Amino acid sequence: MTDPTALPLSEQADLLREKKVSPLELTEGYLRRIAKYNGELNAFVTLTEEDALRSAREYGEEIQRGAYRGPLHGIPIAHKDLYWTKGVRTTACSKVLEEFVPDKDATVVRRYNAAGALVLGKLNTHEFALGTTNRDSSFGPVRNPWDLDRHPGGSSGGSAVAVLMSLCSAATGSDSGGSIRIPAAASGIVGLKPTFGLGSRYGIVSAMWTMDHPGPMTKTVRDAALMLQPIAGYDPKDQTTVRRPPPDYEADLMSDIKGLRIGVPLDYFYDQADPEVENTVRAALDTLADLGASVELVKIPDVEYASAAASIIYLAEAAAYHDDTIRVSPDLFLPATRRSVELGSYVLAKDYLHAQQYRRLLGRQVAAILEGVDVLATPTLPITATPLSQEVVRIRGESQPLRVAMLRNTEPWNLTGLPALSVPCGFSTRGLPIGLQIIGRPFQESVVLRVGHAYEQATDWHQRRPEPPAGLSSDPRAVRYQ
Amino acid sequence: MDSHPMSSEMVQAVASQLAGLDLSSQAVTEHAASLEILVKQIALLRSLPIKEVSPPLIFVPEGTEQSD
């Protein structure tokens, strides 16, 4: 039998339900892999080994006696270190919160616990989620398994690498400008930013109050559907969540995409991407057309202002959130984070309000386009993962700050709050992953997931793994990558 | 602000007198450099007619039922 840690969550769930694999076997398998690979990858920052083993035994007994809770029962997951975990330190990968041990769980964590998922530990993130590379963390950088000298994308870089390398079945991430989708694309996994208001942000350390979204990071789109289910729903502790019963996301994957209309905004999203990325994503659109979807060109009139508006909001909200700490203990922040937080102090209130007004303008323009098409499709990132030390990128002859380039295709969907999914759609000539981003109407995660699932069924990019991982020592006794 | 990036002196003054930040001279220099990009972005957004976008920012009273 294939090593069960290498399987997608959905297949593990079948094996657990049929009692062919126990939660303890899965958990021990992951702990072995973490012991072997985490030293170099640096995805986990805290391990909760004893709790995980105890939960695995308990859940195994529950399943044995027929008290099966559902597809997450006995599944080992891990949380981005922004998520409050009761009794387990939650640092946001910053010295500022080095000693913080929450006395309660985030709502999302509590819901996963109720669904029977067990927690292996906490995952590395860019400090306070204020960056796109996961290079700046108080625990040190996360490394991209496709090339250890490169970053895996961020801020949820630990989550992406842990999923890619089968160090856990699935992981949580959070996304305020692209922090789920960017590392998903740069590492070659699936990442979903749901609609703003679908999932509770209670108990998740905030990066930007009006831009934060919790979401799943997984090996497959089906796994993302399963992981989304407990997240979705009203939470009285987060009044931005909406009262609407979520659909059965996995069941909704079943229908095909024949006749579905896909809008392609070439301006901004494609014409300023690296040509290799553009060509790869265009090939993915051909695949979707072969599956029966119609592909139409669309234009979003004022999208080129998105970067300016998002930057103003990032800086102002981060400065407001960290205002107390930055004045009292600025040296606790890493230099790059400190600079970002301090820069927010120069943003005028009028410009922040202009940026918020722009969100409504952009949202209205996109809503009008989504009356004519069902989803939009773009490259998730205009580039592939860059070397850890690189600060500037050159795309089509034009130099720009790395951070600006990495955010440009994802941040419009934080500004509008629309659901956006990244799925692997190919590799560069250097062997680095490329992601396809699918954006939908508000609360139509089912449609976005259906498109991603259909694409996945027709391709095998999501099954690719670095083998052997570049730079990692080979141990013949170890379980092999799939 | 649209056409003149902030000088180091202005950065120092805003940081200390408005934001309450105690910056080293090196930090002031770094901020001034970073602000050149930010000032361009702010100027770009200011060029977009946005005053008549309606409804403007909405306040939702505490206890109001949230709906989609």
In short:
The complex is a heterodimer of chains A (482) and B (68). With 482 residues, chain A is of the alpha/beta class.
Report helical residue fraction of chain B.
Answer: 40-55%
- Count the E strands of chain A: 13
Integer average pLDDT of chain B:
81
Largest interface between protein chains, with number of residues from each side: A-B, 41 and 35 residues
In order across it, which strands form the biggest sheet of chain A?
1-3-2-4-6-5-12-13-9-7-8
Approximate shape of chain B: flat
| Secondary-structure element string of chain B | HH
Average pLDDT number of chain A: 95
Q: Using DSSP, what is the number of strands of chain B?
A: 0
- Range of strand content of chain B: under 5%
The total of helices of chain A stands at 16
Tell me the layout of helices and strands.
The complex is a heterodimer of chains A (482) and B (68).
Chain A: H1 9-17, H2 23-41, E1 44-47, H3 49-64, E2 76-80, H4 107-114, E3 118-123, H5 157-164, E4 170-175, H6 181-187, E5 190-193, E6 213-218, H7 221-231, E7 261-264, H8 266-269, H9 275-290, E8 294-297, H10 306-321, H11 323-328, H12 335-343, H13 349-369, E9 375-379, E10 392-395, E11 398-401, H14 402-407, H15 411-416, E12 420-427, E13 433-440, H16 445-458
Parallel strand pairs in A: 2-3, 2-4, 7-8, 7-9
Antiparallel strand pairs in A: 1-3, 4-6, 5-6, 5-12, 9-13, 10-11, 12-13
Chain B: H1 8-19, H2 25-46
